[in-house]
Design goal:
By secondary structure, the chain is of the alpha/beta class. It has two domains: about 140 residues, Rossmann fold (3-Layer(aba) Sandwich), CATH 3.40.50.1000; about 70 residues, Orthogonal Bundle (DNA polymerase, domain 1). Helix content is about 40%, strand content about 10%. The protein has nine helices and six strands; from the N terminus they run E-H-H-H-H-H-E-H-E-H-E-H-E-E-H. Helix 8 links the parallel strand 4 and strand 5. It is globular, with a radius of gyration of 17 Å. About 45% of the residues are buried.
Length: about 230
């Protein structure tokens, strides 16, 4: 069994957003299906889970265009998807993952500094934090627009650590996809993997630990920060 991700050096927890704090992958999948259908392409669950889950929107667009040989630019396709998310968020926030609010509050009360590191947009994160009254618990938000290279590159995690004045060894990432895990590991940050139905076939062999839910992670691994 690999060593626990949260250890005596850890004082900062960096949560992924989509699929980790919010149950948004199903919504993203349906929105992508609608966008792609307009060009005659059908995105099934397998393609979304294996290729698209946890990947920033622009890269999703490139992958969809390449796979389905679509006659449209990636920028246009990505904007259509972004606009569909914006329209969705005007009416509601993404639903929270089970035990997400409890995980955030428990970690904060245990003395950890908290951040959000996402391959999605800052607006989406702000909507979540506002809707569920979670903003006071987070000290940093790093989103896709904040870095030149988003997940699976390490830039987003390195930026979060820098903003919080932490070393990678003081941080732990909570991720639901292989791409997110790779971003954290490449930044030298231990990663807790909590797969969803869209990522349960991903390779999490580089994760420091893996759990079936945020609740199991809290009950098994989280200890007061030092």
């Amino acid at each position: 069994m690999p060593p626990l991700a949260v250890n005596h050096q850890t004082n900062t927890i960096l949560f992924d957003h989509d699929g980790t704090l919010v149950d948004s992958e199903r919504v993203h999948c349906e929105l992508w299906r609608t966008v792609a259908n307009a060009y005659g392409a059908t995105i099934d669950d397998v393609f979304y889970s294996e290729v698209m889950a946890g990947v920033p929107t622009l890269q999703n667009a490139y992958d969809v265009i390449a796979h389905f040989d679509l006659d449209v630019s990636a920028d246009v396709l990505a904007k259509e998807k972004f606009d569909s998310v914006t329209a969705y968020l005007k009416h509601q926030a993404f639903p929270l993952m089970p035990y997400a609010k409890e995980a955030v509050i428990t970690a904060f009360k245990a003395g950890y500094t908290l951040g959000v590191v996402t391959g999605g947009s800052k607006a989406s994160v702000y909507k979540t934090l506002e809707a569920y009254e979670l903003a006071p618990y987070f000290s940093s938000i790093v989103a896709v627009e904040d870095v030149e290279n988003s997940k699976p590159h390490p830039d987003c995690y390195l930026k979060a650590a820098q903003e919080l004045n932490k070393t990678p060894q003081q941080c732990v990432a909570i991720e639901d996809t292989q791409h997110g895990m790779q971003a954290a590991v490449s930044a030298g940050i231990n990663c807790v993997a909590i797969p969803t139905e869209h990522s349960n076939t991903h390779d999490f062999s580089k994760a420091s630990s893996q759990y079936s839910s945020l609740q199991e992670w809290l009950q098994t691994e989280l200890v007061p920060a030092r």
